[in-house]
Fold:
Amino acid sequence: MNDDTIKIQDSYPPWNITEVLIFYFGISFLVSCITWGISLSVTRSILGISEISGALEDLNDPLRQTFVNINAILYSIAMMTILYMRVCKRYKLSFTEGFRFVKPREIGYFYLIPIIGVMIFAALMMKDFRPEDITQIPIYSNVSTLPGLVCYILGAITIAPIYEELFYRGYLYPAIEQAWDAKTAVVIVTGLFTLAHVPQLWGDWAAMFVIFCIGTILTVLRAITNSTKLCVIAHFGYNLSLPLISIIAHLLKR
Structure:
């Protein structure tokens, strides 16, 4: 075995909490800056805007929203790629082994129905507590036009459930559980998952509470099943259900 070969620890995971924190606070920030810079540079070159700092403000709403949401998609894809390289390539683990994307223990797939139902119920119950003018909330200001909404839904349904679950419940959770215990891991992962959504939902504290509840449910599910498979499916089902419910409600009002 040469010096470049990484020895896999007998216990899972082979990475430690220090590595996870470097990835969370260092690499994620660097990738965010790079993808944001790429989005602004492309925007400037297309429209001939000289000042990058003012590019987003100079764009008309549909184009601005499209670029903001595409940037979020690019960020998630870049982070997933780096995460895969670290977990599967560096430690020579398969995808299922590295991210615990395996058959869940204790709980069967049938329980996904009530789990997703509870998350949707929490979102609907907090709807009346949201601010009257949601256009001032960052995430809603980027989905008020059709192009922005389409790009957001594309990212929220297809990319976000995979990336967020692989990172928070697949990569972060086991390292914290190994360093301390499962209860501590649930608290910290839920907290970080909630904090990650603050920039998007600043001012909509009801939505933040819903995110906290969803994060708690998904992380507890990870602890009970020792798998991320149900977490990904539940997250996907929840994100998919929200726009469908909105569309159905809109059609019923017509």
